[in-house]
Write the structure tokens for this entry.
Amino acid sequence: MSITLSVVIITFNEEANIARCLEAVQGVADEVVVVDSYSTDRTVAICEEYGARVIQHAFAGYVEQKNYATGQAQYDHVLQLDADEVLTDELRQSILQVKASWPPVAGFTLKRLTNYCGTWVRHGGWYPDRKLRLYDRRLGSWQGLLLHEQFIEKPFQSVGDLAGDLLHYSYDSVEQHVAQLNRFTSIAAEELALRGKTRVTPFQLVLKPIWKFVHGYVLRLGFLDGFAGLSIATISAWGVFLKFAKLRTRASTHENLPH
């Protein structure tokens, strides 16, 4: 059957990225819904220039925000994008084909190709990085705790794969990567604590970061991406250490609180 499609995007201060994202969905989307967390830059104005319906909603977490945004769509079939993602022509054609004849599946995964400081990264575990982003909202929901949110289909539902890349413009500089890593490792440590994991071992602090580097840079051929591959592997390994170091500090602080 043919379907109508809502493109849904959550934003906060994305004036540098959002126009590129919105331009690429022209001719694919039957409507564009932007749920904005009260941006202080030109994000909202740019979205309105492209004819998007903008809804202001305070950010309460990635899972909550994406479920809320999905619920604001006019149509049941949804393509959820981040503001720094862009459809390639091949992916656009793949989406148009399934719009014309949607098969009996809950949704489709898209291949993400990430641009890191000007380099397209094809190794180190960063590609194809398939994400379920085109879905029938009646057949699943966004799930997760604080990080690593994903759309999960209901039991006994199948998922297809689409051809074509979803371009992801991630970091413009190493400084930006490190700043984001610091923020995300704090959230990751909090998530581990919420899951009841408070004990940190020397294995997690020493060997897991080393393994992270070896796995990405050597086993997953990250070295083929040149400096970008080296930077990603090194900072990712540092992130593993930071996550567990912050968890250990958090646990020690709570243990030493007066009773």
About this structure: Residues 226-255 form the longest helix (30 residues). Residues 2 and 97 are 9 Å apart (CA to CA). The two ends are 63 Å apart (CA to CA). The chain has a mean pLDDT of 95.
